[in-house]
Amino acid sequence: MNGVDPFEKPAPARATGIIRMPVLRARGLVKTYGSAGETVRALDGVDIDVMSGGITMVVGPSGCGKTTLISVLAATLDVDAGTIEAFGESLHDMDPEAKTTFRRRNIGFVFQQYNLLPGLSAEENVEIPLILSGRPRRAARDAARAMLVRVGLGDKLASRPSQLSGGQQQRVAIARALVHQPRLLVCDEPTAALDGDSGRLVMNLIRELAVDPERAVVVVTHDTRLYGYADLFAIMSDGRIAKIARKEEMASSAAPEPHP
Fold first, then answer.
1. What global pTM score does this model have?
2. 231 bridge partner residues
3. How many CA atoms, within 13 angstroms, populate the side-chain half-sphere of residue 212?
């Protein structure tokens, strides 16, 4: 890498001059794990607003509750107490079937370990959200191909995950997360398994393709090199949001503990 920090020049946001609005509001979130005799309070009264048109980065030391928080915000994990309103709908009031439908229509998730199905091609992996939502097969195939072209993998449509590099697999995962045009994109350590150059490419893609006036993006990371991509930071400590900070504040303050 010739001594150059691969994350030092993030791609600019595609949407500029927009008015950011809170599209997701969470209040008093509590989540505990374990038995009555030995419990861990992963979330301890979390309040957070997620804004449209930018990237909210959730940061903090290992074990502070980051992954639990984004799982709750992405409607894949229920809380013990608290409320979440997303795009004008209360997740608390939804039954499991309604929540599944809401998630399929509104949320895209990018995982640290890609979570691609090994027996399917890149194209078939990207089709999955559309097939699950009832899109006709031909329309799903066309949309998957178009999205893979956008992430620079137009020549890898038929490749299976084992035939792709880590960075390419993560780009397939991004295409899968965005193909159904979700209003909330949640990314859990999207560059943790990648080298520097691949990580920069992935974050530039998230910034370019995901940031939209109608979309909110949440990224969990331990990597301080990614901070330049964020618009707001939710700094977590011991299951709580200790502070909401802007990029300028993060640059002039002590960074959260990096991943070992």
1. 0.84
2. none
3. 12
